[in-house]
Amino acid sequence: MSKTTTFVTQPSLPPLEEFIPYLEKIWENKVLTNCGPFHQQLEEALCNYLGVEHIALFTNGTIALVTALQSLRVTGEVITTPYSFVATSHSLLWNGIKPVFVDIEPDTLNIDPQKIEAAITPQTTAILAVHCYGHPCNVDAIQKIADTYNLKVIYDAAHAFGVKCHCGSVLNHGDLSVLSFHATKVFNTFEGGAIICPDAESKARIDQLKNFGHAGEIDVVAPGINGKLSEFNAALGLLQLEYIDEAIAKRKAIDETYRRRLSAVTGIQCLQDSGELVANYAYFPILVDDSYFLSRDALYDHLKTQGIHPRRYFYPLISEFPMYRGLPSSNPERLPLALNAASQVLCLPIYPDLSLDIVETICRLIAGVR
Ligand SMILES: *Cc1c(COP(=O)(O)O)cnc(C)c1O
User: Does domain 16-241 have CATH number 3.40.640.10?
Assistant: First the structure.
């Protein structure tokens, strides 16, 4: 048997021939960017699909995060989670904001609302939370704290495309939510991102900020950036959207297979959802504890020798990287649960085209039947 390599993810692509008519249209129009027709169509289509009122498309999720903070004029200190992809905190540094890390909940691995209050200082202006693996944060508890202390709430919802909680789209919580359409995400436009805005005014300001601060042909009202999504990426998004339900259904079948096969393996814990009504199965994280017969890293290495490449998302913690390590809130003693999760987690391969046979093989390898 020839050995294939299975990575943690593989981007979904629509049939190439179906993309050609979109390209022909672009060549015909000669509109390549600057919020052209495909850009507008994708914003409308995404509002419909996601169940949100206003969306502003971006060139990627990181620029969207940086701009979201700018648009709310967030300054000083922001309370955030160390258990995320590094872009979450980098967006604060790019705004000259000091990240203040607080620990996570052991079951969801999301920021623990009960730890937020103690981290608030007179400099605190916002909370930047992450719906980690697409599992919603405790949005009600976070909003209550924000209301009490007059703080903004921004959700890094890079993992949460299409996720719905008790009151509809999880993206409608907080002041702003940010999506990523990077190649590795559930919905991709090669590169791309978006900000979910609560009203037309906030979208208008964000649209100015992503276009150099232009408010008209000769008016510049803010030191904006270039964060626009191109027509190429927007057109691809429109086509990807036609396949998204099928893609999520395939992810769900993989998720179910892993859960069925791994539930009885001693020392392997499959992360549960956090009560979402509609999930997106973006990741399949397991926690490898001391009662498993190998260490997490030994399992990781073993799977790699067998051509299976899981990823240790999220290890190391953001607070362990050199540009964050010196912060008082990065003290490991204050982040025991995040450190524990980072030392145990392994994200197993999950993507629409992953065959259930390979999933079964991965489960057998983990169960130790070789
Ligand atoms: C992918 C990701 C980002 C960055 O998005 P890009 O589109 O790659 O810039 C930010 N935060 C989290 C949690 C992510 O997973």
Answer: yes
Domain 244-367 CATH assignment equals 3.40.190.10: no
Quote the ligand 1 centre to 184 CA distance (angstroms): 9
Q: pTM of the full predicted structure? A: 0.98
Residue in 349, 336, 269 with CA at minimum distance from that of residue 107: 269
Q: Ligand 1 centroid to 158 CA: how many Å?
A: 5
Rounded to whole angstroms, the Cα distance separating 149 from 124 reads 9
Which of 57, 58, 62 is the pocket-test mutation for ligand 1 (most atoms within 8 Å of CB)? 62
Q: Is the CB of 87 under 6 A from ligand 1?
A: yes
pLDDT digits (tens, 9 = 90+) for 286-342: 999 999 999 999 999 999 999 999 999 999 999 999 999 999 999 999 999 999 999
**Alpha-carbon span 86 to 317, nearest angstrom:** 8
- Asked if 43 contacts 181 with a C-beta cutoff of 8 angstroms, the reply is no
**Nearest CA, atom 10, ligand 1:** 87
Which atom of ligand 1 is nearest to 130's Cα? 13
Q: In this predicted model, what pLDDT tens digit does every residue of 38-75 receive, in sequence order?
A: 999 999 999 999 999 999 999 999 999 999 999 999 99
DSSP letters, 289-302, are: -TTSSS-HHHHHHH
Gap between the Cα atoms of 313 and 325, Å rounded: 19
Give the residue, by CA position, lying nearest to ligand 1 atom 13.
Answer: 85
What are the residue boundaries of the structural domains of the chain, listed by start? 16-241, 244-367
